[in-house]
């Protein structure tokens, strides 16, 4: 498993579903579908998404040595 960070590529809104997909080894589309279906159920899914968007670190770019 990889670290839980929001990737720079492959993100749509905040990169949370892409980060979770990388972490668990699935595709980002699958994770987005799971999230969309879970929003039909009662619970704090939107608040959890927003919290992960705020608290997950973004992926850092590789620094180029000049």
Structural class call reads mainly alpha
Mean pLDDT: 84
**Radius of gyration, Cα only, in angstroms?**
13 Å
Shape category:
globular
Number of helices: 3
The total strand number stands at: 0
Polypeptide structure, described:
The protein has one domain. It has three helices and no strands. The chain has helices at 16-24, 28-38, 45-55. α1 (16-24) crosses α2. The N and C termini lie far apart (32 Å).
Any key phrases for this structure?
66 residues, globular
Helix-strand blueprint:
Layout: H1 16-24, H2 28-38, H3 45-55
Helix pairs in contact: 1-2
Entry summary:
The protein has 66 residues and is mainly α.
